[in-house]
Amino acid sequence: MKRAVVFSAAALFLLALCFALLPVSASDEKKITFSKDVAPVLFNNCAECHRAGEAAPFSVLSYKDARPWARSIKEKVVTREMPPWHADPHYGQFTNDRRLSQKDIDTIAKWVDQGAAEGDPRDLPPAPQFVEGWAIGKPDIVIQMPTDHTLEATGPDEIQYFEVPTNFKEDVYVQMAEARPGNRKIVHHIIAFVQPPAKGEQPKLSKEEIEKYREQMIRDSIFYQDGTLTRTKSDAPVYDDGCAIASGGSGFKRDGSGQDEFNIGMLLCGFAPGMNPAVWETGTVKKVPAGSKLILQIHYSKVAGQVEKDRSMVGLKFAKVTDKELLTRPVSNNYFRIPPGAERHRVTACWSVQDNIHLVSLMPHMHYRGAAMEITAVYPNGKSEILINVPNYSFSWQTVYYLKNPVAIPKGTRIVVTAYYDNSAKNKFNPDPTKAVRFGDPTYDDMMIGWIDYTVDAQQIRPLPTSGKMR
């Protein structure tokens, strides 16, 4: 009898253990809902673009808007295509790293797998608040093109320049800046430059004289004008290794000495597909001198069969604290030539640093054939450091990478930018793999620029103006 009791108890124990080891059924899993679990992830990481009036194709601010896209959301986050981030995490740390944690990815995937339920609407957190039209919040001032620009329905792309007075009576220091297209259908990119007033007595040139001067500079360079577009001449010398010539790759003189382009001014901010607004650390600012103009370089793409109008603008938020003035440098190669069909064509550019500086941000820029870019510092002692590596460049996402800790770069360092291009038929974005490609404004040409924001260690900024009469 005792033996039977012991046997029965053992059997029950083994049965209980088997049940304990069985996998948890779907019905026993925690139910993931939009309101409680998914909305906080989307609000914090996606809503900046995925909301009404922005470039993304749908909003994530409500279950009703997000639910039809549930499977697409899962696919994009599981493959890490979204949120977009193309820098190799092994090199550099960046304050604007958009990557989701694995926990967040798993939450979204499980939500979709369980049927993408809404849950209790009372669990929904407050939606993030945005100033309509502005990622930087409400600007202190908006500087807009004085009149509409009319873009005809047919013809090639256009690069147009617009002068916009700031009317600042005192020097102004900017903490945040955002270029905003008036018409997203036709504005491919905006680059906003600050053009300070001329020093001393300057001859007053007419618009025609200024244009004539610019045309002369173009004639003396490796470039030519194709309508409003600047492109590289077909007979210009080819230097794929820009680091091997004196200019480092800059090409505004045919002898390769690298005279700078017509002086438009200092880069303030830009707009391009996927570009984040210019937001710098407190105290790191850009200066707009009293009496400056903004020069807006705008690339327009035609909408076939339709006349369009645009009146783009720039929003500024003023600094409350000033420490270091931010400067911008394009490290570029204007001489390269990508052969037809080339799958992995290498191009370099270099900049020899003349001061002790700190790097603040880095931004690779190429067009549709751009495949990868790496920016490296080669220090005076011979040691090198990879500052950023973007192994899968995407023209659709012109990301500015803000360094978490500015990198000290001593005088005499060589900044080396290395780019790779895919001009083969395997590149689904390639406009024409049968053609050789050179540097130029239109997207069917290509570019090679490593944009660098930096501060100069020895520089001093005077105190902020106190009168408040800036304009």
Protein model, in words:
- It is a single chain.
- The chain is α+β, with helices and mostly antiparallel strands and 471 residues long.
- It has three domains: 24-123, no CATH class; 133-196 and 265-322, Copper type II, ascorbate-dependent monooxygenase, N-terminal domain (Jelly Rolls, Sandwich); 232-259 and 326-471, Jelly Rolls (Sandwich).
- It contains six helices and 24 strands.
- Strands 1, 4, 9, 10, 13 and 14 form a six-stranded mixed β-sheet that branches. Strands 3-11-5-8 form a four-stranded antiparallel β-sheet, with no helix packed on it.
- The radius of gyration is 27 Å and the shape is globular.
- Mean pLDDT is 85; it is low at 1-7, 9-22, 252-264 and 466-470.
List the topology elements.
Layout: H1 2-21, H2 34-45, H3 63-66, H4 70-78, H5 102-113, E1 141-144, E2 149-151, E3 158-165, E4 172-180, E5 187-195, H6 207-219, E6 223-226, E7 229-232, E8 266-271, E9 278-279, E10 283-288, E11 293-300, E12 308-310, E13 313-318, E14 322-325, E15 327-332, E16 337-338, E17 345-352, E18 357-365, E19 370-378, E20 384-390, E21 401-409, E22 414-421, E23 437-438, E24 449-456
Parallel strand pairs: 10-14
Antiparallel strand pairs: 1-13, 2-12, 3-11, 4-9, 4-10, 4-13, 5-8, 5-11, 6-7, 15-24, 16-23, 17-22, 18-21, 18-24, 19-20, 19-22
Notable traits:
single chain; 4-stranded antiparallel beta sheet; Jelly Rolls; 3 domains; 6 helices; disordered C terminus; 471 residues; 24 strands; 31% strand; 6-stranded mixed beta sheet; globular; alpha+beta; 15% helix
